[in-house]
Amino acid sequence: MQARLDAVTGEAAEAEEDARRMRDAIIASESRARAAQAAAEAAAATQQEALKQAKEELERARQTIEEARRAEAAARAEAERRWQAAEEGRRRAEAARADADRATRAAQAEAQKAAAAKEEAEKRWKAGIQPVVTPSLEELEKAKRRIQYKEGVFHFAVAGVAGSGKSSLINAFRGLRNKDAGAAATGVVETTLTMTRYPDPNPQHPFVWFDIPGAGTLKITDWQYFNAQGLYVFDCIIVLFDNRFTMTDIAILSNARRFQIPTYIVRSKADQHIRNLMRDMGYDSEEDDEDDPGHNQGRRNKLYKAARKQYIEKTRESVRINLEDANLPDQRVYLISNDTMLSCTTTQRLPKKVIDEIELLIDIYAQVVSRRSLPREDDGLLSSLRSAKGKLTDTLSSAVVNSMHSMAFAA
Predict the structure, then answer these.
(1) Beta-sheet pairing, 207-211 with 196-199
(2) Residue at 80 is within a domain
(3) What is the domain-level CATH number for residue 168?
(4) Which residue in 269, 273, 238 sits closest to 253, CA to CA?
(5) Where is the composition biased (Low complexity) (predicted)?
(6) Are 235 and 154 in contact (CB under 8 A)?
(7) Domain count, the chain
(8) 173 — phi, psi (to 5°)?
(9) Is residue 171 part of a domain?
(10) pTM of the entire structure?
(11) Where in the sequence is the domain holding 334, given as residue range(s)?
């Protein structure tokens, strides 16, 4: 019995030991399980973080790709836009070049037409056939407003090619030196680019002088010059030239004749031209300083008379031929020097080297009296004119005119 009890006790102890070992094993297993769970949870957290980072990297990669795609699309669009702009620019450049070519051809054609028309007009003028270009009433009124046309006032136009001395002549007519206040501007180059109005400074003289731009300074052909400048509204036209008589001068005279406007052909700078002829004849101004002044003075006077005579004869013959070629009637040409003209209008002494200055003044003032229907007995006007021109008494009488003519052309 005891033995059995001991056996049972042993078995119980063994069972208890087994139970203890089992408990230890369970505890160890639970500990491992918890460690494994902790490791798994840590691994899961790490995996989750890695997954999150991977997702973020993937999103960034997706955004970068999207941005790259957008940038590529924008670059492609910009390249397309630039190509289209370049293509449009090329098309426009080609169109502009084509337009320019057409415009050039058209301009060349117009220039050829204009040149042909000018040549034809010049031929017609020379043949005595004048182009009929009559201004309308509106154009007449506009031209009168432009020059401030006033009844009772005599309007002189001084016209001609550039550089002929129009401004200096107007100053001389008005008794002014070129540097005086109120004088017309003068210079080496043409200074008159627009028509300029100069009333006579003497209030008793009902004159207004107009400095007309030289034909060579404007984009106007010779045959359009008369109408373009509105010369048809003037009471008198002075056609001034220096070196040669031109088609502009012929055009002015032809049109003035058609409009029944009196004209005066005047060649300026007589003193310069005569000096040039004297040099051609062998005159040297330095000779005046040599030991025999009397001899040199005599030689100088002889050369001056010869040069003066040649200048007068050749000028008048040249103008006569030009008028004849244009089928215009012969007309007096007045040879003047502006300095001599100024002396005539400002002093009481007759200049020594006068040619046609006095006669030009007399004829112009006689024209004023005639055109304005003023009687020659009008002592107010004529006395004023005589006083202003050096108190040349009885200048309108034929006797004095003839004596002045003889004096001007004495050899």
Answers:
(1) antiparallel
(2) no
(3) 3.40.50.300
(4) 238
(5) 38-51, 105-115
(6) yes
(7) 1
(8) -60, -35
(9) yes
(10) 0.59
(11) 137-408
